[in-house]
Amino acid sequence: MRRLPTIFLTVLLLPALLSAAEDTTAADATERGRSLARILDVLLLPDEDQAGAKRTVLFLLDATDSLRTADFATELESALSRNAEGLAGTRIAVARVGDSGGPVCPPTDDFALPVKAAATIVANPEKAFQNVYYEVRRMAGALAGAAGARQIVLLTLENGDVEDDLAATVAALKRADVRLSVVAGASYH
Residue 92's domain spans which residues? Predict the structure, then answer.
């Protein structure tokens, strides 16, 4: 029996991620331990019923100063290492918002390659606002042929509300049977 397409739009706010100061936000007060490391741990691992099954996770990076400051590549490398056992059967890809081609790092089970691609992307931040959901639609199409479960993790710490056609994005995700998780920031320091 074919499983119905699923789309999960998970918006995880990272208000204190970038702050070296002791500023306290509502998120800090209500959810201890909120960090990029914790978010990556949650998003990387498959659902229990998919453990060990083939799946592809594409990190779509909106390369801004905030993502560079958050040291995303190092955080990704640590998360992949911490969760290596649970990632059996998982291939990781990396793409950059605003690039006209496909993923910078195509899906691979050699986790050093997406980390290297992420480091290169975040080292060169973009200052202009990007249409992040247009890129989600493009990458959903690129993942459509991948075996197993497919997931896009959009990291957009500064442009999370920049989109042109959310309905078309949802339709593209449904067509490709791709799950979407969005990591967006609420405040920047």
Answer: 10-184
